[in-house]
């Protein structure tokens, strides 16, 4: 025991020792001190203003200013993205800029770009209108020329042949136009404009209904795509000319144009005027193109100069906001000249924190130093493990189940080896393992590049677990060599087989059977078992027994870790009434089964272990007969059975009664103390008997112990059976691989046709990649995860702690609030 106590501590075995500290910081050095602590990232502040809303805190105005600057920076970033430019921080000389100067600078930049955008929008809108006007002029000219000729010819024909001279005054527009021609007093008018192509059909129908058919509607598609000022997208548009008569019809048509978003432009009938206006429009378009081009270049130059500093500014504002948010967690002392803060830090970080605080006092030219001292507290400390890029992924697996209690034994130490090993037991194939290894090596080789990129959700998970994938692939190669499977094909890697045919001419040795001719195969499964009639029974027996051995070993490891937890927390009660009976119960049944398996392997006995274990409970006094593996087996079984039966009440009854006795002795004689002035004094006293009497509830403790005992007894059976998934998944993986190899690849290779062979090879590669390397990998990973979370960790791991989350600039999220 003394030897165990003198062993050096393992860094990852237990969380870092934490201490609760108090800081008394003068106001003039508070900002710099918190900023330096953020760069250090080893102090977790406690919020001393929980009862206050965010708007009641001291530095709320500074937080609002930082939030406003963040908004302006996001605006500038959006402008960069719209312009197709990328922001990048230059490592060149960067002059220090203070927050007030940055605030003024950002306000000027925002105002400048808002004005630029407004002017650009106005110019762009004018340019779009002139472009539309040009289209209308080009298309309307042909409409007007064809309309006049059509009107003259058609009118003459109708006048001569159709309409009598005494036709009533309410004749249709067509008749009025053809009868009167251009000299008619009513006059034939027209409206020209442009409308999005998607609305043209509905627009035409609405005009027809509104005017009851008294119009001519001509349309033609525009030659160019035009920017829509509402959606800011290039859209197809249609030029239209509507011929009508009467002021009322004009009013209706204009209203419909406005409702459908059609832009109307005046087109003179005189061809000379049309040519003059067209020339003027083209000239103004050329000027606007030049102006817009100059404006875009000027805007891009301004954005380019900002882009070099935008990342620096965003990080600066983000840090400043985090500093003020942290300062809002601190309280003023009674003099209102100092800020008081409390928090947790690792003991090893105390010298670094004190050095940072001294540097902050010196840099802020404060006359008063910052007071940093350790305090006592009843709160449980946070849990902090120092991990690296290799161990971090395993720690995340454990933390996903629950964060370890302070100084509790950390399962991640053992998970580094046991997790990839149990995965490999289910995934054992050294061909598939090599494929996983290549993928892991690619991720590790490109680690620097991928860590700086924004990855998708799946790729991010895969990259985060690259070292888990590496270990899983290495263990898969190892287990695959033991199983002697390379894409389900066995190889004579470690020498000749121990078996041979019954005679030299036997061609069906795999079906008739083999005979042993030399010593056992030196490493792993003999390749001659493959294809023999006893292959499946042999592998089933091997993998099933192996799964039980691994399961019992890992569960015993969990119980042993509970012992070390009890030693560390000085809880002798748990050792005597929890650890000891649990070890006795588990090993009296399943430890004994593991012993029988090993003895049977070593002796080559034909004993039926199912029969031995069943009749150990049903008929413990009966003679074992052929199933006896060693001398004294029957009395040993009786002793183990009695030990298992005794272990159950040993776990259940003593601990609650001893706790009640200790509680009564601890507070004996304290129930009648000195008479207090009020009842509240007794209740509020930390060590009062009344408070502790209320906290200790015997029935609750007894029920909890009963649940824990029942859970362990039943869990010993179910957890051992749960480890049989190692056998089931290993067998399934092997059989699936065999099916794809024999029924796809070999079947296709039996044909002489090259195309059939290539198709078979493609199907085999697809099945291997997507089913065996992806689905089977995920399945084995999830089952290994379950074995660690449920079967292993529930033996010793509480997982009811909380993470150490220090104030750290490095740990801040990339996205802004």
UniProtKB/TrEMBL annotation:
GO terms for cellular component: vacuolar proton-transporting V-type ATPase, V0 domain. Essential component of the vacuolar proton pump (V-ATPase), a multimeric enzyme that catalyzes the translocation of protons across the membranes. Required for assembly and activity of the V-ATPase. Belongs to the V-ATPase 116 kDa subunit family. It holds the Pfam family V_ATPase_I. InterPro entries: V-ATPase_116kDa_su, V-type_ATPase_116kDa_su_euka. It comes from the Eukaryota. The chain crosses the membrane at residues 421-444, 465-483, 546-567, 579-599, 636-653, 754-775. It is a multi-pass membrane protein. Keywords: Coiled coil, Hydrogen ion transport, Ion transport, Membrane, Transmembrane, Transmembrane helix, Transport. One of its GO terms (biological process) is vacuolar acidification. It is found in: Membrane. Residues 92-126 form a coiled coil. GO terms for molecular function: ATPase binding; proton-transporting ATPase activity, rotational mechanism. This is V-type proton ATPase subunit a.
């Amino acid at each position: 025991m003394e030897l165990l106590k003198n062993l050096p501590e393992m860094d990852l075995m237990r969380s870092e020792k934490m201490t609760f500290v108090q800081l008394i910081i003068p106001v003039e050095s508070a900002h710099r001190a918190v900023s330096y602590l953020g760069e250090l990232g080893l102090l977790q502040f406690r919020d001393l203003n929980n009862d206050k809303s965010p708007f009641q805190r001291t530095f709320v105005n500074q937080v609002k200013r930082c939030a406003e600057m963040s908004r302006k920076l996001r605006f500038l970033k959006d402008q960069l993205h719209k312009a197709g430019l990328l922001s990048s921080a230059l490592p060149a000389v960067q002059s220090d800029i203070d927050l007030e100067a940055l605030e003024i600078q950002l306000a000027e930049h925002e105002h400048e770009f808002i004005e630029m955008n407004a002017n650009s929008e106005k110019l762009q809108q004018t340019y779009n209108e002139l472009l539309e006007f040009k289209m209308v002029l080009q298309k309307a000219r042909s409409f007007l020329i064809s309309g006049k000729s059509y009107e003259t010819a058609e009118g003459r024909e109708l006048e001569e042949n159709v309409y009598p001279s005494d036709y009533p005054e309410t004749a249709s527009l067509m008749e009025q136009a053809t009868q009167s021609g251009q000299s008619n007093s009513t006059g034939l008018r027209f409206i020209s404009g442009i409308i999005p192509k998607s609305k043209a059909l509905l627009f035409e129908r609405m005009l027809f209904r509104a005017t009851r058919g008294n119009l001519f509607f001509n349309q033609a598609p525009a030659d160019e795509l035009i920017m829509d000022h509402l959606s800011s997208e290039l859209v197809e548009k249609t030029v239209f000319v509507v011929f009508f008569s009467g002021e009322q019809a004009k009013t209706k048509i204009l209203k419909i144009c406005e409702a459908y978003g059609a832009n109307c432009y005046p087109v003179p009938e005189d061809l000379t005027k049309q040519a003059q206006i067209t020339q003027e429009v083209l000239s103004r378009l050329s000027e606007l193109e030049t102006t817009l081009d100059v404006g875009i270049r000027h805007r891009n130059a301004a954005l380019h100069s900002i882009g070099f500093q935008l990342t620096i500014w965003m990080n600066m504002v983000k840090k400043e906001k985090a500093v003020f948010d942290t300062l809002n967690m601190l309280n003023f002392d009674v003099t209102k000249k100092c800020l008081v803060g409390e928090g947790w830090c690792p003991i090893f970080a105390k010298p670094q924190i004190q050095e940072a605080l001294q540097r902050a006092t010196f840099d802020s030219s404060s006359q008063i130093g910052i007071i940093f001292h350790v305090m006592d507290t009843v709160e449980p400390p946070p849990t902090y493990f120092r991990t690296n890029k290799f161990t971090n992924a395993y720690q995340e697996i454990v933390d996903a189940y629950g964060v370890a209690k302070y100084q509790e034994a950390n399962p991640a130490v053992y998970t580094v080896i046991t997790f990839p090993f149990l995965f490999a037991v289910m995934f054992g194939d050294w061909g598939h393992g090599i494929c996983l290894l290549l993928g892991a090596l690619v991720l590790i080789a490109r680690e620097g590049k991928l860590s700086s990129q924004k990855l998708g959700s799946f790729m991010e998970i895969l990259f985060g677990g690259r070292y888990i994938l590496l270990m899983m692939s290495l263990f898969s190669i190892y287990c695959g060599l033991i199983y002697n499977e390379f894409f389900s094909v066995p190889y004579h890697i470690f020498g000749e087989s121990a078996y041979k045919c019954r005679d030299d001419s036997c061609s069906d040795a795999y079906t008739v059977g083999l005979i042993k001719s030399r010593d056992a195969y030196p490493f792993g499964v003999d390749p001659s078992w493959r294809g023999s009639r006893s292959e499946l029974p042999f592998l089933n027996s091997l993998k099933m027994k192996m799964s039980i051995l691994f399961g019992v070993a890992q569960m015993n490891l969990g119980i042993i870790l509970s012992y070390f937890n009890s030693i560390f927390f000085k809880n002798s009660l748990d050792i005597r009434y929890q650890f000891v009976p649990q070890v006795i119960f588990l090993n009296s049944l399943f430890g004994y089964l593991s012993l029988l398996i090993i003895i049977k392997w070593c002796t080559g006995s034909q004993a039926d272990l199912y029969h031995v274990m069943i009749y150990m409970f049903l008929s413990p006094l009966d003679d074992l007969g052929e199933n006896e593996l060693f001398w004294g087996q029957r009395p040993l079984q009786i002793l183990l059975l009695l030990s298992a039966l005794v272990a159950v009440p040993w776990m259940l009854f003593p601990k609650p009664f001893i706790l009640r006795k200790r509680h009564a002795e601890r507070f004996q004689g304290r129930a009648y103390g000195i008479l207090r002035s009020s009842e509240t004094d007794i209740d509020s006293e930390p060590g009062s008997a009344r408070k502790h009497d209320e906290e200790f509830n015997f029935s609750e403790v007894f029920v909890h112990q009963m649940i824990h005992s029942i859970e362990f007894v039943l869990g010993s059976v179910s957890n051992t059976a749960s480890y049989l998934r190692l056998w089931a998944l290993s067998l399934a993986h092997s059989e699936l691989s065999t099916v794809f190899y024999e029924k796809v690849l070999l079947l296709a290779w039996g044909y002489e046709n090259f195309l059939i062979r290539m198709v078979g090879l493609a199907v085999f590669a697809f099945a291997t990649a997507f089913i065996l390397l992806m689905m089977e990998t995920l399945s084995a990973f999830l089952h290994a995860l379950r074995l660690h979370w449920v079967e292993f960790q529930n033996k010793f791991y509480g997982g009811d702690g909380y993470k150490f989350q220090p104030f750290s600039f490095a740990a801040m999220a990339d996205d802004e609030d």
